Amino acid sequence: MQLKSDTSQGWSVVLFLSGFSAAWNAVVWRSMMPFFWQISLAPDDVFHWWQSGGFLLAVLFALIGAGLALLAMYYFLKQLFTPRVCVKMASAALWPSGALQVQWTVTMRQRLLDLRFGLECREEIQEQPQGNDEALHVRRAQRKVLPLWKIIDVDAEGERHATLPADLLDVVARDGGDLRWYLTVRGRVAWLPDVADDLPVTVQHAAPAT
Q1: What is the pLDDT of residues 13-52, one digit of tens each?
Q2: Could you give phi then psi for residue 4, rounded to 5 degrees?
Q3: d(CA 162, CA 90)
């Protein structure tokens, strides 16, 4: 079974910020062009424009546009240069006292300072909407954490094996929610946001019958 981090949301943010920034700057500079044209014809009007507050307002909108452009560039570089971890598991399901075999490949591994794997159980509770909010909210509570491996010198490819504890499923849903298991992948990245992927896995009570 192959597990990959979902990068579509990050690229959606990049596209939204890029489009919004381009539209904002186009409107702002299109609106400012007549003022610049008028000033070039009548330089004495600069003082009146400054006195009326139009100059400060134009600068403010231009700075907001520049900030949006820089933010879009930041998210673009983040998506482009943040390391990606692709994980492969030998089995599609896990169980107590069973074997866990994980293989991974990493892009941009030179930026990774370390790589940490863990197995985590969370209780997901659906909360009813309040007030005018019609959407259901999902609250996640950490119920069990099993650290697995910490790799300092990260290679482009790697593999680790572990035997899961017999009391793996010794966990209770305290608030009546659903228990979900995740293989957590964490990594510190130089100069960029850290890797933080939660990859859903299936944990069953016993090994499948053969």
Answers
A1: 888 888 998 998 888 887 777 666 665 555 555 556 555 5
A2: -130, 145
A3: 12
3-class state of residue 203 by DSSP: strand
- What span, in angstroms and rounded, lies between the C-alpha atoms of 43 and 132? 54
C-beta separation of 85 from 104 below 8 A: yes
CB 72 within 8 A of CB 17: yes
Strands ordered across the beta sheet of 93-94? 93-94, 195-203, 178-187, 115-127, 137-151
Q: For the chain, how many helices (H) and strands (E)? A: 3, 9
Q: What is the DSSP string of 23-45?
A: HHHHHHHHHHHHHHHHHHH-TTH
Which tokens sit at 14? Answer: 């990049």
CA distance 100 to 164: 7
Instruction: Give ∠ CA 49-52-54 in degrees, rounded to 5.
Output: 60
Query: What does the alpha-carbon distance between residue 110 and residue 93 come to, in Å, rounded to a whole number?
Result: 32
CA distances from 124 to 143, 159, 176 (A): 10, 30, 9
- Of 93-102, 114-123, 138-147, give the lowest mean pLDDT range: 138-147
The count of C-alpha atoms lying within 13 angstroms of the C-alpha of 48, restricted to the half-sphere facing its C-beta, is 7
Q: Is 186 exposed, middle or buried (0-12, 13-18, 19+ CB in 10 A)?
A: middle
